[in-house]
Amino acid sequence: xxxxxxxxxxxxxxxxxxxxxxxxxxxxxxxxxxxxxxxxxxxxxxxxxxxxxxxxxxxxxxxxxxxxxxxxxxxxxxxxxxxxxxxxxxxxxxxxxxxxxxxxxxxxxxxxxxxxxxxxxxxxxxxxxxxxxxxxxxxxxxxxxxxxxxxxxxxxxxxxxxxxxxxxxxxxxxxxxxxxxxxxxxxxxxxxxxxxxxxxxx
Length: 202
Hints:
This protein is of the alpha/beta class. It has one domain (10-194): Spore Coat Polysaccharide Biosynthesis Protein SpsA, Chain A (Alpha-Beta Complex). It has 7 helices and 9 strands. The strands form 2 sheets. The protein has a 7-stranded mixed β-sheet with strand order 5-4-1-6-8-7-9, sandwiched between helices. A two-stranded antiparallel sheet has the order 2-3. α3 runs antiparallel to α5. The longest helix is centred in the middle third of the chain and has 13 residues, at 109-121. It starts with 9 loop residues before the first strand and ends in a 9-residue tail after the last helix. 38% of the residues are buried.
């Protein structure tokens, strides 16, 4: 583990989607600025944990070099990111799981450290990023202790991570409405037009 990290966390990269907006292509493996989207995130988070997990439902051999472990959804048919989060929580080795989507390659280390520091202030609650008025539930830090309650919510038919987490206790980490670090490059146009991370003023 990195010395002086504010909160030891397992880290989960969500790459298990069907990629509807990308014509069914596996988003995490699409190239941006010369390398796969997942590689950009890997470069940022690899120094921050020795328990790096990727949720993927295909192309496992291509994802394997970027993770300590791979997990897959517990149900077939690409049921959504909540399923990937549940799989990550079930396998995480630390008391908290930091979650990031694979199509957000502009995430940087200061943002991740801020998420971990906020979680350390009240480890019994989740931390969700809020961008202006919009919650970003796929950028979060979750206590592993939430797993049974979240599994119950899933079994009851809930498929929204935000709605499942709200009753369990959350803290927000406020970011600017147009914070470029939270940009999801989840369409072909966004992928080709996005500004390189090095050119962004944060």
